[in-house]
Design goal:
By secondary structure, this protein is mainly α. It has one domain: Orthogonal Bundle (434 Repressor (Amino-terminal Domain)), CATH 1.10.260. Helix content is 53%, strand content 5%. The protein is globular, with a radius of gyration of 12 Å. The two termini are 17 Å apart.
């Protein structure tokens, strides 16, 4: 899976972590700064479904905008 949080955020003119946190707060999503930074800066290993719902509400997007299926790597 490919993590597209920054792309989804950019569509709402959110380009900094502080702006993302402000959008999250507007929908009642208050992750710790370290968790928000990890979501912003890297591809998470796991994300709770209720957190995905809150992120989508904050960004006005769908889960498909945040997660993109990628074919498995050929070894």
């Amino acid at each position: 899976m490919k993590w597209n949080l920054r792309r989804a955020a950019a569509k709402r003119d959110i380009r900094q972590l502080s702006d993302l946190l402000a959008a999250f707060r507007q929908v009642g999503f208050n992750p710790p700064l370290s968790r928000a930074a990890a979501l912003w800066n890297a591809e998470p290993v796991s994300v709770r479904l209720d957190d995905l719902d809150k992120m989508c509400a904050a960004l006005g997007c769908t889960v498909a905008d945040l997660l993109e299926a990628e074919p498995p790597a050929v070894r």
